[in-house]
Design goal:
four-stranded mixed sheet, DNA binding, alpha/beta, CenT-Element_Derived, 8 helices, DDE_SF_endonuclease_dom, single chain, DDE-1 domain-containing protein
Length: about 230
């Protein structure tokens, strides 16, 4: 699992988005996936805004996202504890998995408040090594943000030609979450995820040929948490 910040309304062109707007339109995303890409957990969105009405009552498994409203959009122990409880339920009791976490204090406190069951092991990454050892930092987050920028650009260009006014104002939290889920589910290839784990040295080198035909997650595939020891 790893977090990343996202300026969901942030313009690539500063003339369209004042600095104050860029500052107020930031989310923290929690991403978690197993080493083959076959199990992509719902994205957790930590934002200062109230949960959009359109997201109320949606099943996270079906919608692909969980909205967490917080005055602080930085990771704290409260969302971490809640995320861990959901992760443990997702894994169940029949599989053994390793969950990789960096040594962020919010992670450590969250684990103390919500300790894992016996079939889930927390593996702490050494301090100061997350840029090398955190799998999602190798390729996945970069691919995710690249995909978001492309969708954002296409939307802005379309609105510039079709509607008057600043097209930035047409980007809503609901629309941003829709794009986030679209990219997470379908915009990142399984091979990209596998290479990220390989480059982080978490996994031993393996030929990715078996993943070539699985660019999109297989709904029928057995899910995994991070590194699934049962597979």
């Amino acid at each position: 699992m790893d977090e990343t910040g996202l300026h969901w309304k942030h313009a690539l062109y500063s003339t369209l988005a004042p600095k104050a707007m860029r500052h107020s339109s930031r989310m923290t995303l929690l991403l978690c996936v197993n080493s083959t890409g076959s199990d992509r957990l719902p994205v957790w969105v930590i934002a200062s805004e109230k949960k959009p009405d359109s997201l109320d009552g949606l099943d996270p498994g079906a919608s692909g996202a969980v909205w967490y409203s917080s005055e602080s959009i930085s990771m704290t122990s409260d969302p971490m504890q809640e995320w861990l409880s959901n992760f443990y339920s997702h894994i169940g009791s029949q599989r053994s998995v390793i969950l990789l976490l960096d040594n962020l204090s919010a992670h450590q406190k969250g684990v103390r408040l919500a300790p894992p069951p016996s079939n889930i092991r927390i593996q702490w990454l050494p301090p100061g090594t997350t840029d090398r050892n955190q799998p999602l930092d190798q390729r996945v987050i970069r691919a995710f943000k690249s995909g978001y920028r492309k969708i954002w650009q296409m939307h802005i260009i379309e609105k510039m030609y079709k509607e008057p006014g600043n097209p930035i104002h047409t980007v809503s939290p609901e629309l941003a979450v829709h794009w986030i889920v679209q990219i997470w589910k379908h915009g990142i290839k399984n091979q990209t995820i596998h290479k990220s784990f390989h480059e982080s040295s978490v996994l031993q080198p393996q030929p990715p040929s078996s993943l070539a035909s699985r660019d999109l997650p297989d709904p029928a595939a057995r899910p995994g948490g991070f590194v699934d020891l049962s597979e």
